[in-house]
C-alpha cells in the first residue's frame, strides 16, 4: 500500500510536467485546430533564451518575464511568416510544415548552444516538500504554476472580450468574421499564447530533465497523449490528463512485470487508446456535432 | 449512429477533395472572390496517362545500366520507399485515414523476410508474399480498434504502434528469432540463371518488377468498386454508409492493404540493406514516409516516387550544404517545397498537363 501511494505521488510529480506541456498543446489546438509538432522545440528554444539571459546576469524572474514576452512575439512571428501563407494549403501540408519547423529549431538550437547538457536553476529550491522524499519543492512549485496558469486561462477565455473573440474565431470562423472579429489575428494570438505557455512549461521542466536541444522530445509525446486523453477541447482536461498519464506510467512501470523503463511509454499509450476507444472525445472533451 | 457522426465530425486532419472546405483562416475577402480550386479529382487524377507511365518505366529500366553500384543501391531504396509511400497514399489519399504507424508494418515485413530467409532458409522472393500476407492480417486487425478513432486520435493510436514496435522487437522473448538489439544479418541474393549482372543490379530489377506489379495492382484497386468505396468514405462517411457501403469493412480493408504493401516494401528493404535491427524502424521512418506522401501529393499515386526521392536525397543534400545545420537546411527546403506547391508533385503534374493541353489547342 505504501508503495502504491509512493508511486502515485511520484506519478503526480512527473505528471505535472506533462500537464504543463499538455496545456500548451491544447491552447494551440484551440486556436489553429491542429496539433503542433514543433511545440516542444519552440518551448525548448524559449528555455534556452531564458538560460542565456540568466548567463548574461539577469535575475531569474526578470529573465522569466522577458522570455515570456519574447516567446509571445516569436510565436506570432512564426505564424505570420510561415503559417499564414499556408492557411489555404491542405491540412497535411501544414503538418509537414510543423515537422520542418521542428527540424529547423532543433538544429539551430544545437548550433547556438550545442548539445551538451546544462543545469537549469529553479526558483523554488529542490528540498523535500513537506517532508516527503518523493515530491520536491520544485515539483510542488511546478504543480502550483500549472494550476495558476489554468485558472488564469479560464478567466481569460470566460471573462475577457479577447478571450471570447478567440473562442468564437476557433469554433465558427465564418460567423466570427461576420460580427467583426479579425480571425486571422486571433490565430496569430493563439500561436503567441501557446508559445508563451510553452515557454513557462519549458522553464518549469528544464530543472528536472536538464537543458539540451532534445529535452522536449519525450515530454512532448506525453504532453500530446495527455491532451488527447483529457480531451483536446478542454484545458482542464489536459491538466488532469497530464497527471493521469504520469500516474499510469509509473504504475505500469512498477506493477506490470517485464515492463521496465522501455515499455512504459507504449503501455501508457495503449491505455490511452483504450480510453479513447470507449470515449472518443477524450475524458473531458465535448463531442462536436455537425450537421451533415 | 453517434459513433459514425463522431468519426466524421472530428476528422479535421484528412481530406483531399474537399480541402477547400476544410481550410481555415480564409479572409472574408477571399470568401467573396472564391478560391481558385484544383479540380476535384478528375477521372485519372490518381494515376498517370499511359504515355508518361511508359516514359517513366523506360527511364527506370535504363538508368541503372549507366551508373555505379552505390547509386543503383540508392535507386533500389528509392523504389522501396516509393512502395511504402504508395501504401500510405492508398490509406490516406484513398480512404482518408491517417497513419503514423507505417514504420511498424514496415518493420514486421522486414523481420518476416529476414527470419524466413535466415532461420528457415526460404528463398528471398518467396518471403515477400508471406511478409505481405502477415502484414495484411496485422493491419486488418489494427484497423479494428482504429475504426472508432479518426483525425488526431487515429494519429496518436498509430503513433503508439510506431513507438512500441522497436521495443517489442527487442523483447527477450523473441530474441531467438529476432536477434534482439543486435538484429539479423541477411544475405544478399545473387542474380539467378547465371545472368551477368552484379547483386545490386539484379536486386534493383527484381525490386522494379515487384514495384511495377504493386503499382498496377494499386491503380486498379482504386479504380475498382472497392477503390470507389474507399473514396466515398474519405469524402463523406455518412453519405457512403447511406449508399450501402460497409464502412467498417472497407476502412479496415484499406488498413490491411496499406499494411500489406508496406510489409512487402519492408521485406525488400531488409534484403537490400542486408540487415534488420529494431532501431532502424523507429517513428522517424514513419514521419519520413508521411513527408514523402505530402511532397508527392496526397492521393496521387505516381507522386509516391517523387516523395520517396525527396526523403532519400534531400537529407543528403542538406548534409552536404552544412554539417552542423543539416536539420535546418532540410527544414528550409521542406518549407520551400510546401510553399511553392502545397499540393505536392501532383500540382506540378497538373500544371504540366494544362500546358500540354494548351499547346495542343494552338
Word description of this protein:
The complex is a heterodimer of chains A (about 290) and B (about 350). Chain A is about 75% helix and about 0% strand. Chain A is mostly helical. Chain A has a two-stranded antiparallel sheet with strand order 1-2. The mean pLDDT of chain A is about 85. Chain A has a domain at about 25-230. Chain A contains eleven helices and two strands. Chain B has about 350 residues and is mainly α. Chain B has a domain at about 45-280. Helix content of chain B is about 70%, strand content about 0%. A two-stranded antiparallel ribbon of chain B has the order 1-2. Chain B starts with a helix and ends with a helix. Mean pLDDT of chain B is about 80; it is low at about 1-45. Chains A and B meet through helix 4, helix 7, helix 8, helix 9 and helix 11 of A and helix 1, helix 2, helix 3, helix 8 and helix 14 of B.
Amino acid at each position: 500500500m505504501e508503495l502504491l501511494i509512493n508511486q502515485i505521488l511520484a506519478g503526480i510529480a512527473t505528471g505535472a510536467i506533462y500537464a504543463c506541456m499538455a496545456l500548451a498543446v491544447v491552447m494551440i489546438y484551440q486556436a489553429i485546430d491542429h496539433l503542433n509538432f514543433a511545440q516542444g522545440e519552440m518551448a525548448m528554444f524559449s528555455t534556452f533564451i531564458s538560460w542565456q539571459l540568466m548567463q548574461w546576469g539577469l535575475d531569474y524572474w526578470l529573465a522569466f518575464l522577458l522570455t515570456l514576452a519574447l516567446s509571445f512575439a516569436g510565436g506570432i512571428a512564426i505564424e505570420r511568416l510561415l503559417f499564414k501563407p499556408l492557411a489555404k494549403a491542405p491540412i497535411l501540408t501544414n503538418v509537414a510544415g510543423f515537422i520542418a519547423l521542428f527540424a529547423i529549431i532543433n538544429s539551430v538550437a544545437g548550433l547556438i548552444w550545442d548539445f551538451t547538457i546544462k543545469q537549469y536553476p529553479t526558483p523554488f529550491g529542490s528540498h523535500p516538500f513537506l517532508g516527503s522524499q518523493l515530491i520536491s519543492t520544485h515539483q510542488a512549485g511546478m504543480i502550483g504554476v500549472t494550476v495558476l496558469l489554468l485558472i488564469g486561462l479560464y478567466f481569460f477565455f470566460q471573462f475577457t472580450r479577447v478571450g471570447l473573440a478567440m473562442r468564437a474565431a476557433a469554433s465558427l470562423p465564418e460567423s466570427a468574421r461576420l460580427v467583426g472579429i479579425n480571425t486571422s489575428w486571433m490565430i496569430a494570438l493563439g500561436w503567441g499564447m501557446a508559445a508563451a505557455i510553452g515557454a513557462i512549461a519549458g522553464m518549469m521542466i528544464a530543472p528536472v530533465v536538464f537543458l539540451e536541444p532534445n529535452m522536449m522530445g519525450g515530454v512532448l509525446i506525453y504532453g500530446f497523449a495527455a491532451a488527447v486523453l483529457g480531451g483536446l477541447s478542454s484545458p482542464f482536461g489536459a491538466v488532469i490528463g497530464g497527471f493521469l498519464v504520469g500516474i499510469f506510467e509509473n504504475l505500469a512501470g512498477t506493477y506490470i512485470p517485464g515492463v521496465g523503463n522501455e515499455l512504459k511509454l507504449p503501455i501508457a499509450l495503449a491505455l490511452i487508446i483504450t480510453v479513447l476507444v470507449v470515449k472518443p472525445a477524450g475524458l473531458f472533451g465535448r463531442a462536436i456535432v455537425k450537421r451533415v | 449512429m453517434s459513433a459514425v457522426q463522431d468519426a466524421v465530425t472530428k476528422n479535421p486532419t484528412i481530406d483531399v477533395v474537399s480541402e477547400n472546405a476544410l481550410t481555415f483562416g480564409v479572409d472574408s475577402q477571399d470568401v467573396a472572390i472564391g478560391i481558385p480550386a484544383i479540380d476535384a479529382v478528375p477521372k485519372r487524377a490518381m494515376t498517370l496517362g499511359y504515355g508518361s507511365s511508359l516514359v517513366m518505366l523506360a527511364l527506370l529500366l535504363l538508368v541503372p545500366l549507366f551508373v555505379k553500384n552505390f547509386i543503383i543501391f540508392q535507386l533500389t531504396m528509392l523504389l522501396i520507399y516509393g512502395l511504402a509511400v504508395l501504401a500510405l497514399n492508398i490509406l490516406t489519399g484513398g480512404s482518408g485515414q491517417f497513419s503514423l504507424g507505417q514504420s511498424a508494418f514496415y518493420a514486421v515485413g522486414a523481420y518476416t523476410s529476414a527470419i524466413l530467409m535466415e532461420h528457415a532458409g526460404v528463398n528471398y522472393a518467396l518471403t515477400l508474399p508471406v511478409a505481405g500476407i502477415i502484414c495484411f492480417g496485422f493491419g486488418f486487425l489494427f484497423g479494428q480498434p482504429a475504426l472508432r478513432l479518426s483525425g488526431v486520435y487515429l494519429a496518436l493510436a498509430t503513433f503508439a504502434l510506431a513507438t512500441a514496435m522497436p521495443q517489442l522487437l527487442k523483447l527477450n522473448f523473441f530474441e531467438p528469432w529476432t536477434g534482439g538489439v543486435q538484429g539479423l544479418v541477411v544475405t544478399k541474393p545473387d542474380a539467378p540463371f547465371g545472368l551477368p549482372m552484379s547483386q545490386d543490379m539484379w536486386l534493383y530489377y527484381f525490386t522494379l518488377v515487384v514495384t511495377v506489379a504493386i503499382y498496377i495492382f494499386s491503380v486498379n484497386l482504386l479504380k475498382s468498386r472497392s477503390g470507389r468505396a474507399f473514396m466515398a468514405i474519405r469524402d463523406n462517411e455518412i453519405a457512403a454508409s447511406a449508399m450501402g457501403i460497409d464502412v467498417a469493412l472497407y476502412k479496415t480493408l484499406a488498413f490491411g492493404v496499406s499494411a500489406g504493401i508496406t510489409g512487402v516494401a519492408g521485406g525488400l528493404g531488409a534484403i537490400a540493406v542486408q540487415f534488420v535491427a529494431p532501431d532502424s524502424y523507429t517513428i522517424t521512418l514513419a514521419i519520413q514516409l508521411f513527408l514523402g506522401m505530402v511532397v508527392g501529393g496526397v492521393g496521387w499515386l505516381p507522386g509516391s516516387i517523387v516523395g520517396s526521392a525527396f526523403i532519400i536525397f534531400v537529407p543528403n543534400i542538406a548534409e552536404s550544404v552544412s554539417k552542423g545545420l543539416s536539420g535546418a537546411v532540410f527544414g528550409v527546403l521542406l518549407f520551400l517545397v510546401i510553399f511553392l506547391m502545397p499540393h505536392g508533385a501532383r500540382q506540378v503534374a497538373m500544371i504540366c498537363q494544362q500546358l500540354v493541353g494548351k499547346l495542343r489547342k494552338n
